[in-house]
Structures are given as structure tokens and as C-alpha cells.
Write a structure and sequence with these properties.
Chain lengths: 113, 113
């Protein structure tokens, strides 16, 4: 059973608009969440993270929102740029589980010029 | 140096071959990981080394044999693999004080014929 789910395998957005990528999780023990970006033939690159004690973390054009009661997080990219086109993975970790990350299935974002 | 370097980038091997994947980092990270990623799937954890000791083995078949010779190097020895083992093998590392922010390498694209 997947503990971290990204229900949208792909998302297409116009350049300059907002991209919203969603992620749901089932394990209430997760207390740290991360987003990774992956280009083809490259390893995932860390993008932004959020601790369960917060509900929002912002870094430039990227903002992650966490709704613990709904076990839902989202990544907002605004404004979207063509260079943002990549696969985005949501990942979660629990303190008791050490350094293990559980990844979602990924969402392919395509930003059209 | 803020990179995780993996070699080779591509590898084609027969089912009777023995080969090794290599991973190197010089960021002082004391946790290192091997992940396997199949097409359109999330990365799946294989092994975790913490302070050069194997701490997690996610029920990986014995035809995969990890080795951590020192704090900067991580190897994955391959022997008698099957075609279904073809995948992207990702190495990652993390800092002791920031365990969740993995740095990934670019991966080795392995094809077993």
C-alpha cells in the first residue's frame, strides 16, 4: 500500500501561471516532507521541505503548504517557467524511521511558453 | 564540493557478468543510500549505510551486494542479475545534522541483457 500518493501523473500549465502539485499521505507518523525535482537522466534535486510543526514554507517562487488534518501537502510554483518542466516527487519521513524517505509516484509538470 | 558522483553513467551487462557501481561524495555526509528507480515509478530504497555500517537492507536479493569502504565511498556489487533488474540506480547521501535533505547522484542506467 502506497503511503505517499501523487494522484496526478501529469500537469500542464501556461508560462507565468501558477502550478499546483498535490500529495497525500496515509502514515500519521510522518513528520517531515520534501519535494524533489527530477530531470530525465539526472538524479532528483532537493527543492523545498516542511516540518510537521509548520503549515507553510516559502522559498522564492516555491511554496509548500501542509494540511496535517487532511494529510495533504501541495507545492505551489508561481510564476511557472518553462525550465520548471520536470517530474516532481513528494517524499515523507518519520523521525522514528531514521533517514528513510518514502516517495510518491511523481507528477510530470509541463510548462508551456 | 556539493555533489554525489556516480560511475558509470550507463552500464550494459550480461546475466553472468560481475560489475560494480560506484558512488562518491566529499560533503562529510555520514549516511549513504542506494535507491532503485524503474521507469515512471518512484525511487525505492535498497540499502542505507550510517557511519559506514549497513543499517537498512530492504529485503534486496543477494545478487546485489553493497559495500562502504570509507565515509566517502559507496559501492554496489552486481552478480548474476536478471533482465528485470534493469533500472536507474541512484546513490544519495545526507548530513548527520540534516538527515532528510538527501543529495542524489545522477544515477547509473543499468541494462541487463
Amino acid at each position: 500500500d502506497q503511503q505517499v500518493k501523487q494522484n496526478s501523473p501529469s500537469l500542464s500549465v501556461q508560462e507565468g501561471r501558477i502550478s499546483i502539485l498535490n500529495c497525500d499521505y496515509t502514515n500519521s507518523m510522518f513528520d517531515y516532507f520534501l519535494w524533489y525535482k527530477k530531470y530525465p537522466a539526472e538524479g532528483p534535486t532537493f527543492l523545498i521541505s516542511i516540518s510537521s510543526i509548520k503549515d507553510k514554507n516559502e522559498d522564492g517562487r516555491f511554496t509548500v503548504f501542509l494540511n496535517k488534518s487532511a494529510k495533504h501537502l501541495s507545492l505551489h510554483i508561481v510564476p511557472s517557467q518553462p525550465g520548471d518542466s520536470a517530474v516532481y516527487f513528494c517524499a515523507a519521513s518519520a523521525s522514528w524511521a531514521g533517514n528513510m524517505l518514502t516517495f510518491g509516484g511523481g507528477t510530470r509538470l509541463m510548462v508551456k511558453p | 564540493d556539493t555533489e554525489v558522483t556516480q560511475t558509470p553513467k550507463h552500464l550494459v551487462m550480461g546475466m553472468t557478468n560481475k560489475k560494480s557501481l560506484k558512488c562518491e561524495q566529499h560533503m562529510g555526509h555520514r549516511a549513504m543510500y542506494w535507491y532503485k528507480q524503474k521507469a515512471k515509478k518512484p525511487p525505492e530504497l535498497m540499502f542505507v549505510y550510517s557511519y559506514e555500517k549497513l543499517s537498512i537492507n530492504e529485503s534486496v536479493p543477494s545478487r546485489f551486494s553493497p559495500e562502504c569502504p570509507n565515509s566517502s565511498l559507496l559501492n554496489l556489487h552486481l552478480h548474476a542479475l536478471q533482465p528485470e533488474d534493469s533500472a536507474l540506480y541512484l546513490c544519495a547521501s545526507s548530513h548527520p545534522d540534516r538527515p532528510y535533505g538527501y543529495t542524489f547522484g545522477s544515477g547509473t542506467r543499468l541494462t541487463v541483457v
